[in-house]
């Protein structure tokens, strides 16, 4: 049975005028236990063909059989442990050591610890790699390619697919790698498909497929091709076939049954030589190591029954979680982002928002001579907030206010004390002139509403204190509206108390989002995600590994935020601390899920940043965090209640400010909607990840 069979395979990208036919009725046969060299220029369809063989792409027409079955068949192990894959890019974790890299792929392939340990020693010696503790990011380009090659070999798969395996390695090591591939194919009946831009290097393969414009120009043994075309090199043969294809694309392509030209593998008992694919003796000084005859090194080959592409594997999940932990711990920026940034954000929020303004210059025009009650009134004005600046007349004060020197003007009439007493003692004599003369005239700059409101409160409070000092019954001077003890909160509730719930959920949500938003994009860009898919990792496992590992960071961030908000800065909490902490954690989990969603739908870091930033401001403005949603127009109101933070904010505000529990609709609906959005984001992320596979 052949290892690979492709019959009339067609694959195209795009539609209509933008349609690009990448594979065109391609036929390919790769017998088991052979080395197949796939040669062709960039863009001829090699990578697309390999992805179809691996089950990473579906063909538009035709059939592909890998190890006798369509790739992706349950129990086949492709994608999975039955195939070793080395992409053209190194696709390695720079933060990992060589040992951790091999541990990661070995654990994904569910290798026993003892077998994995022996295999690591063998691969280190075979590929002349530095020690297992060497950091991948510190290696040279050639060393990284050898580590990538080792990762493809770690589980001794029956099928190896290698994209440019010898690029960047020195000639002696290239010979050694080829010797190993030849002997691996002969000894273990491993099928190897590789691409290389060293055309003459492919003469060592059993079969070469010369590919151009999505078709195989020829598929035969290298020596047979050279002899048939009477040319000295395989490169000349390839050039000749390309020219023929260009001038006469209508002719039938050369195609020779590869099973008829595979060279005989010698069964010679020679201790120091083995017959290569070109009939020559291949000598090596470490043949026993390369052949892996020793039972101490020989790995048992994974069977299809134990390499199922399960929906969820604890072994693969554990490998992914360890990978995420190592990458986080070896990235100081992530640790700083996870711990220091929550402290800075909560501290800045509590210090910068909700406090009373101070040292506001206000012009004072006192026309009363001598000043009596006007002076007493000014003494009752809050000197922390208001800086009183005496000014000679109202015209000068107004000019200064218009020039931006003062936030307001306080003016007293010449008979302020007399007229005020008359208003209170004999209201029947309180003419309009007396009422005006006995009033404090305040003109404010209303362009900053928060400062204006603060000044208005100070002016009114000062008048209440004044009446309390000189009237026998100060209640007479109060307006006939009495505000009783508040139902919830206090009469001195600050704006920061209103903002606190929304700021808490916002900080936790977007910090958690920031941890996961770039994770999949970076792995996809570096080729790590694609390599994991080929190894059999499922989208569910990728999602869970990130949620479980980053969930720990989310708990830590939630604790930090709550400690600073409730403990250090004493924001009042009238309800259950457990409910507050639970809402923080769920919002963090929802933020992680949204980050994974953004990372799964975006292909670059720039688009991720645009999506997350575009989501931040509408959420901040429409979720009732800085202004009540009841004040919004109807359209915006209904949009706001659909956002993941609106009901969470309202529910947390009910717990913190009112002491409510889950018996209140406004509270429990916040938890339900947060969980619903989390599940929705995770499902959408998994769906987009499966599409990207």
What's the layout of helices and strands?
Elements: E1 2-13, E2 20-31, E3 35-39, H1 46-54, E4 61-66, E5 83-86, H2 98-108, H3 113-126, H4 141-153, E6 159-163, H5 171-188, E7 191-195, E8 207-212, E9 215-220, H6 222-229, H7 234-247, E10 273-275, E11 281-283, H8 287-291, H9 314-329, H10 332-352, E12 360-366, H11 373-380, E13 386-390, H12 394-402, E14 408-412, H13 416-425, H14 432-437, E15 441-444, H15 449-470, H16 495-516, H17 519-525, H18 528-534, H19 539-568, H20 577-601, H21 605-622, H22 634-640, H23 646-658, H24 665-692
Parallel strand pairs: 3-7, 3-8, 5-6, 6-7, 12-13, 12-14
Antiparallel strand pairs: 1-2, 1-4, 8-9, 10-11, 14-15
Helix pairs in contact: 2-4, 2-9, 9-19, 10-16, 10-19, 11-15, 16-19, 16-20, 16-23, 19-20, 20-23, 20-24, 23-24
Low-confidence stretches: 250-299, 304-309
In order across it, which strands form the biggest sheet?
5-6-7-3-8-9
Q: Count every beta strand, where a strand is a DSSP E run of 2 or more residues.
A: 15
Largest sheet: 6 strands, mixed
- First-residue to last-residue Cα separation: 28 Å
Query: What Rg, in angstroms, do the CA atoms define?
Result: 38 Å
Q: What's the number of helices?
A: 24
Helix content: 40-55%
Helix/strand-derived category reads alpha/beta
Average pLDDT figure: 83
| Dominant shape | elongated
Say what oligomer this is.
Answer: single chain
Q: How large is the share of residues in beta strands?
A: 5-15%
């Amino acid at each position: 049975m052949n290892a690979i069979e492709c019959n009339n395979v067609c694959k195209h990208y795009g539609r209509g005028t933008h349609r690009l036919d990448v594979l065109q009725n391609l036929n390919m046969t790769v017998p088991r236990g052979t080395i197949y060299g796939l040669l062709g220029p960039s863009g001829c369809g090699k990578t697309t063909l390999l992805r179809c063989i691996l089950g990473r792409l579906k063909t538009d027409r035709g059939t592909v059989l890998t190890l006798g079955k369509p790739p992706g068949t349950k129990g086949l192990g492709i994608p999975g442990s039955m195939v070793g894959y080395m992409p053209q890019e190194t696709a390695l974790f720079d933060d990992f050591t060589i040992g951790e890299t091999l541990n990661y792929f070995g654990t994904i392939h569910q290798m026993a610890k003892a077998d994995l340990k022996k295999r690591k020693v063998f691969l280190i010696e075979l590929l002349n790699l530095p020690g297992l503790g060497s950091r991948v990011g510190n290696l040279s380009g050639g060393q990284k390619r050898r580590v990538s090659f080792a990762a493809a070999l770690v589980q001794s798969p029956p099928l190896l697919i290698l994209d440019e395996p010898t690029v960047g390695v020195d000639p002696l090591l290239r010979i050694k790698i080829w010797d190993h591939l030849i002997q691996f194919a002969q000894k273990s009946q491993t099928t190897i498909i590789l691409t290389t831009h060293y055309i003459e290097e492919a003469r060592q393969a059993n079969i070469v497929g010369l590919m151009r414009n999505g078709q195989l120009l020829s598929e035969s043994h290298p020596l047979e091709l050279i002899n048939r075309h009477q040319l000295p090199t395989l490169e000349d043969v390839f050039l000749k076939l390309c020219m023929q294809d260009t001038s006469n694309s209508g002719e039938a392509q050369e195609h020779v049954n590869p099973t008829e030209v595979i060279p005989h593998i010698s069964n010679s008992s020679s201790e120091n030589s083995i017959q290569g694919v070109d009939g020559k003796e291949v000598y090596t000084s470490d043949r026993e190591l390369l052949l892996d005859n020793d039972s101490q090194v020989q790995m048992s080959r994974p069977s299809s029954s134990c390499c199922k592409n399960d929906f969820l594997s604890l072994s693969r999940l554990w490998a992914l979680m360890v990978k995420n932990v190592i990458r986080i711990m070896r990235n100081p920026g992530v640790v700083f982002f996870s711990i220091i940034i929550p402290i800075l954000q909560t501290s800045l929020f509590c210090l910068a928002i909700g406090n009373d303004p101070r040292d506001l210059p206000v012009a004072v025009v006192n026309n009363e001579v001598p000043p009596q009650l006007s002076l007493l009134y000014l003494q009752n004005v809050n000197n922390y907030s208001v800086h009183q600046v005496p000014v000679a007349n109202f015209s000068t004060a107004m000019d200064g206010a218009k020039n931006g020197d003062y936030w307001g003007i306080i003016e007293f009439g010449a008979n302020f004390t007399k007229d005020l007493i008359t208003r209170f003692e004999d209201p029947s004599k309180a003419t309009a002139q007396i009422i005006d003369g006995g009033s404090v005239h305040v003109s404010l700059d209303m362009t900053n509403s928060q400062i204006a409101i603060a000044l208005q409160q100070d002016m009114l409070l000062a008048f209440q204190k004044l009446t309390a000092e000189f009237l026998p019954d100060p209640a007479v001077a109060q307006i006939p509206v009495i505000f009783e003890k508040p139902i919830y909160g206090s009469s001195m509730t600050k704006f920061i108390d209103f903002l606190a719930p929304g700021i808490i959920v916002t900080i936790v949500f977007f910090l958690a989002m920031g941890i996961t938003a770039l994770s999949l994009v970076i792995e996809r860009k570096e080729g790590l995600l694609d390599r994991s898919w080929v190894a059999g990792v499922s989208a569910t496992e990728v999602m869970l590994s990130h949620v479980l590992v980053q969930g720990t960071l989310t708990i830590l961030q939630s604790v930090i935020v709550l400690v600073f908000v409730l403990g250090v800065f004493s924001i009042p909490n009238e309800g259950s601390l457990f409910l507050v902490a639970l809402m923080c954690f769920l919002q963090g989990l929802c933020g992680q899920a949204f980050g994974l969603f953004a990372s799964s739908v975006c292909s670059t870091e720039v688009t991720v940043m645009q999506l997350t930033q575009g989501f931040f401001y509408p959420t901040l403005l429409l979720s009732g965090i800085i202004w009540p949603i009841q004040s919004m127009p109807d359209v915006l109101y209904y949009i706001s209640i659909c956002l993941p933070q609106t009901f969470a904010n309202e529910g947390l505000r009910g717990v913190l400010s009112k002491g409510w529990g889950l018996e209140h609709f406004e509270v429990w609906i916040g938890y339900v909607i947060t969980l619903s959005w989390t599940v929705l984001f995770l499902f959408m992320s998994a769906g987009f990840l499966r599409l990207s596979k």
